[in-house]
Amino acid sequence: MASVSADDVRDVINVSSAEVPDVKVLKMLKRAEVALELETGNEIDYSSCTDAEKEVITVLAAIYAVCYLTGGSAVGLSFSVGDQNVSVLGKAPPLDVLQAELSRMLDRIREPTVEMT
Asked: How does pLDDT run across 66-77, given as a tens digit for each residue?
């Protein structure tokens, strides 16, 4: 099983713990976990999850972190980004790239699994 860490989230958008402290990231991870549970109907734990769930939670929490850094907002899977602080987000991937990646992963994770007989 995989585990999502605060550093995993910060690595996606290339920021430090000084810019987004652990306490904030852990709240974002919990929100991302709940959003994924609502999307899939499955019980999920970000500290013990599948690799696919880890990726979705990590990217969703990273989007929440971008919203936090820019003064934007995020509710579930809806996001608005405020004025971007270029000095903080200069190395981060564009938000639309993260959103497209998240959407693609959610589509895949929602697909019913086919069992081999």
From this structure: 888 877 655 544
Does some domain include residue 61? yes
Residue 1 within a domain: no
Dihedrals phi, psi of 98, to nearest 5 degrees: -65, -40
- Residues 82, 71: contact at Cβ < 8 Å? yes
Question: What six digits make up the tokens of 32?
Answer: 């991302």
Structure-token pair, residue 100:
């497209």
What is the rounded CA–CA span in Å between residue 14 and residue 21?
Answer: 13
- pTM of the prediction? 0.71
Residue 58 lies in a domain: yes
Mean pLDDT score, 53-70: 88
Domain count, the chain: 1
What DSSP designation does 91 have?
T
